[in-house]
Every structure is written in C-alpha cells, then in structure tokens.
Design goal:
four-stranded mixed sheet, 2 domains, 2-enoyl-CoA Hydratase, Chain A, domain 1, six-stranded mixed sheet
Length: 286
C-alpha cells in the first residue's frame, strides 16, 4: 500500500494502524501529566504515515482521559522530529497528477492528519507543552511552535528552511511565526532559511525558554507543577480566551471575559481562597 494509492483515505489510515512497531510512547510522571514521545529514533522521528497516525490516535486517547491536564510533546534521542518523510513523499508525488483526484488525497492527508494534530494542540482544552529536545523541522516544528508553552534545548536546531526545498511554511507555521516575530522578521527567517539554535529562538521570543538538554525535562515538569497548582477550570477557561484574544477587537475580548468571569466567582475554590485571604488580613489588622 502506497501513499500514491491511498493517502488521506480511510483505507490507508486503517492500514497504517496495523503497523506492528510502537512509534509513539507515553510516559506519566504524575497523574495529571502525559509525556508523549515520537519514538522512531532510527529515522530521526520523521513523520511517516504510521508515526503520524499513531501520534494522532495517542493524542486523542490522552485528551479523553479526565485526569490528564497537561500533554508534553517531545521526541526520543537527540531529535524532536525532522518533519515529513520526504523519501516516501518524493518517491510517490509524481503519480498524483495521473490520478483522477490529482493531489486532493494529499490535501486530505495534510488537512486531516498533519493539520488535524495542529488543530488538536490549539483547540484542545488540555495544556500542550512542546519540549524541543533536538532538531525540529517542517510540520513537527509547526506543532511545537503552536503549543501553549515551548521549551527548547540550547543545542536544538529549529529549521524553517521551507523555501530551500521549494515549499511554503505549513500547518500553522505562518500563524505562529508572524505572531511571535512580526511579519518582516518572520519573512526574513523564511527567505534566508536561517537555522536557529534553541538559545537563539529564546532570544527572539520564538520559544519561552531555552536550557541545556539535560535540564529540559526538569524545566518542563516545573511548568507542569505550577499549572497543576491552579484549579483546572481556570486553565481550561483561560486557554480559549487567550488563544482568540489576538484576533478579536478590544470590545470582543472584553465581552468574552465578561461572560467567563462570573462563572469563576461561583466556584468553591475562589470562595474558599477569598475567605482565607480576608481572614488573614483581618488577623493581621488586629
């Protein structure tokens, strides 16, 4: 079964699910946290059909777990992911034009699988943290940059050289880059094909923090610890508010907040916290 014959179709995805190798692993350092690792180290975690489908299925399963609040996306070994499986794609791409639907099946794959994972990261109520442990390129870089928090190893390389291989930025990369860097800086990064280290990406504001590779997981788990101290509803309600605020007018953002805030006032956590604060102030005043 080849991409040229089946990419994007239900039959192809069903066949990919029969892949015997485990290409995505899940670790649980605590009940509320799931670390999802792309785990095809021999192929530098290239986004082959089986890996992509396993990742999409794994994320759906983890998101469905009520206790999980945070999902950390990372890779095994010394690489996050080199992006698309170009050997497979280039071997089969020439045949698309000969088929009845042309490139429509490829469009379906990009939208439903690659784009589907990006939309999951952005639209899920769970907090997504990307831990860029090594080289990150193409679609995988897009996934990483669109997480809620991004940490990178200083030694990691963020590869934005789409133009060098005749492609445009994809799967939400334009959205992430222009909002983090502004149009001109993002365009410069694209046309120069500059490869950024994790440390350089942090200096530009493209990632939240860069640390040594040995410290990366600890830094991410420290974020998880802070998030888990907050009531679940606070994070769940804030994520969509913040995600959409940049595309709203001031009044639209205000209205969204005004409808959300009264709900939080009625929660037991808020009421108990305020009572404790008031009691503390009263005691201090005596």
């Amino acid at each position: 079964m080849t991409i040229a014959a089946h990419v994007g179709t239900k039959d192809y995805v069903a066949a990919l699910r029969r892949e015997p190798r485990t290409l995505v692993r899940v670790e649980r350092p605590r009940t509320e946290v799931a670390i999802v690792r792309m785990a095809d180290e021999a192929n530098h975690n290239a986004l082959s059909g089986p890996l992509t489908v396993q990742l999409q299925d794994t994320l759906a399963e983890v998101i469905a777990e009520r206790d999980v609040r945070i999902i950390v996306l990372t890779g095994v070994g010394d690489v996050f992911s080199v992006g698309g499986d170009w050997k497979l794609m280039t071997e089969r791409a020439h045949s698309f034009a000969e088929r009845e639907e042309g490139t429509v099946d490829l469009w379906r794959w990009i939208r439903q699988q690659f784009g589907g994972i990006a939309r999951t990261i952005v639209h899920s109520d769970k907090v997504f943290i990307s831990a860029i442990n090594g080289d990150a390129a193409g679609v995988a870089l897009a996934w990483a940059l669109n997480a809620d928090l991004v940490a990178a190893a200083n030694e990691a390389r963020l590869v934005t050289a789409f133009g060098r291989i005749g492609l445009v930025p994809e799967v939400g990369t334009n959205w992430a880059l222009t909002r983090r860097l502004g149009y001109q800086k993002a365009f410069e990064l694209f046309v120069t094909g500059r490869i950024l280290s994790g440390a350089e990406a942090a200096d530009l504001g493209l990632v939240n923090v860069a640390v040594s590779k040995d410290e990366l997981e600890a830094a991410v788990l420290a974020w998880c610890e802070r998030i888990c101290r907050l009531p679940d509803y606070v994070v769940t309600m804030t994520k969509p508010l913040m995600r959409n605020a940049a595309d709203m007018t001031f009044d639209q953002a205000m209205i969204a907040e005004e409808f959300a805030e009264p709900n939080t006032f009625t929660t037991r956590y808020h009421q108990e916290t305020i009572r404790a604060l008031v009691a503390g102030r009263t005691k201090a005043a005596r």
